[in-house]
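QUALITY CONTROL LOG
STEP: pairwise intake check
CHECKER ROLE: data steward
CRITERIA: each record must contain a sequence immediately followed by its structure tokens, with no blank fields

ENTRY 1 OF 2
RESULT FIELD BELOW
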Amino acid sequence: MFWYQKAACKGKETKLFFSSDDEKTGTRRKREVEAKKICANCTVIQECLEAGQFEDGIWGGLTRAERQGASRHKVQLERPLAVSENLANSPWVIIETNEGHAIWQRDTELTWHGCEWAVVNSNQILEVCDDLNNAYIAYGRLIHS
């Protein structure tokens, strides 16, 4: 059995996971949230993420832009949302937020790529990840639980 035969999205409308050229931003965001809810409960999310690494659409619970950001050695933020100085060592930069849930990023010498990411709920760190893909997966499960 192939991984996609066990995917939570099997049998769902394909257009839920892919945008159209004329899709408005608000419509796109709503569609992506719905697609990510399905992905958050999927048992083959890692296989999907790997298969869709260079594809358009939502694969493994991430959009193409999120996957491209995740594949960089060090994520460069154009416009951080906020910086929290109250944590030890390096300040955390908030790179994603949704109603009290967030992903924070900070520089560290503990990983080969120089970054770590925290999955946060109400300013409390739930999980620290050395891989942005894993942080987005945990974040997706958090906001859709």
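ENTRY 2 OF 2
RESULT FIELD BELOW
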Amino acid sequence: MKNRRSLLTGALVPLVIMAIMLVNLQAVLADADQVAKGKELAFDRKKGNCLACHMIDDGSLPGTTGPPLVAMQQRFPEFEDLVSQISNPLLNNPNSMMPPFGLHNILTDEDIQNIAVYIYTL
């Protein structure tokens, strides 16, 4: 009985580890897709247009009105604070020049989420 339990446990542990790795791989692939969509929106002059005001790693013709988008995880330790900043920067700074993309329905919630995921990688 004891050997059977050890055998079962020994076989079960690798399966659990593989399942966890598969879930993590799916999350990474989903995040990679979100990052790509977010970058496309952020660089799109008709959508997010982040480059109009911000310098971004490999963007061309960046603006200088807003701060460079670097070290974003240090600047926004909480991801949701970054989402909020993109959606409605007026909450943190009523005099902000940044358009409230969510408040004015310039971007959808999904677009804002995708852009935030991308920007969080910078």
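INTAKE CHECK: passed for both entries
DESCRIPTIVE NOTE, ENTRY 2: The mean pLDDT is 83.
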